[in-house]
Predict the 3D structure of the following.
Amino acid sequence: MSWVQIGRRTSPRGAGPKYKALIQAIRAGIGNQSLVPGDKLPPVRDLAWRLGITPGTVARAYSGLTDDGTLVAEVGRGTFVAEPKPIPPDYFPIEADTVEHNSGGDGYAVNMISPHLPSVGQARLIRQLLAQIAEDPPSGVMHYPSRRNMQPARAAAARFLSRVPLGRFTEVDVVLTHGGQNAITLIMQTVLCGRRPTILVEELCYPGVRRAADLMRAEVIPVTMDAHGLNPGALEAAAHKHQAQMLFTSAEVHNPTCVFTPAKRRDEIVEVARRCDLQILEDDCYRIGPSQAPAYRMLAPERGWYVASLSKSLTPALRVGFALAPEGQSMALRRAVESSFFGLATPISDLIAALLTHDGLDGLMDAVRERSDEYIQCALNVLGRHDVKWRRDVPFLWLTLPPGWRTSAFCQAAAEQGVQVRSAEDFACRDAASPHAVRMAVNAGVSLASFEAAMQRLRRLLDNPPEGIGV
């Protein structure tokens, strides 16, 4: 192979890190068979001298390619192109080049604002399916989206959702949306009426619901919670006082506190909703494990609306969500979709149909959960002496700050230490009080070692609150 050519590839104008360019160049050489299994690569210092780069750059490239199985290092002999390994049809290995660019990589900074899913093969699977669809798109590329060409994707989504206790529904009832946020907005458009409708929410809630409410000129009223979720008495009082039309809630996984609402409490909330004629919009976008109790759509089929997405279980990049209306109200929700954007782009709906029916899907989702659990366990090992709420099926943790820390000061101090966390204030309604707490999302886009180092920096802050700040 021409290492002069490799040298040019590692130094293009405006390129990113040189070690990544070297990785790409070596992979390209393997791809075009300039390098074949068993070929020996030059020693680190020798190649660095030839290419005019540092030995550390070459070592980092070799290390990355060795970690993903492209190369194999033999002590005393050198580094060689590895023999290709057969890939079972239901397994797709982790890829070194799929780390989120904004996540800090293996460097010092770790972004924990939003969850970053581990790459366990879903990127490769999606690329493979996209390539197949590009060759022969089932829905074509010259037609508007329609109920007919969306049917395979809806059927696949119905199969995907069948594992959730949602009550009776068929593929005709499934509405495909541009992610969970879009689904929430569409349901509000379908349900809310009047000049200034009112929506009730948990006292801390997903910030996107407030943005969706703003679009509808709706008022958002927080309702107090306890260890089991919404307080039914407070909910009923707020519904009467504000003549509310809708309750927005996350019963399986409350964002941001990880609280689970058990079946008995859900039954009590349904009774309140029926007495006060509240529609219930359930946001189930945060769970990466199995459901633990019936959804409100099953408990109250005449008023239960349901939203889910692929963002926390597979990838947020596709922006695909699922919405279900109460029994008998699917047509109204479909009209809202068709009036807003006709439907998903047909290549995306073809991709969803293929992805959700793939034999390896369950294995990929299990691998996402298992890998995320390693990061959660790592955080608990470091921060366990502090007040941390967590669950193995949730890609974030809720940390109540110890006396001496205010939320804004802690977030600023953490950012100065290269760790970005989300303040409790982000989840509180406007002008409402918020606890001194932060949400820490799992960032599996960085190495476990980098994540642990970030947790250690947070622990040092927690253990040493600034002087002069009162409780």
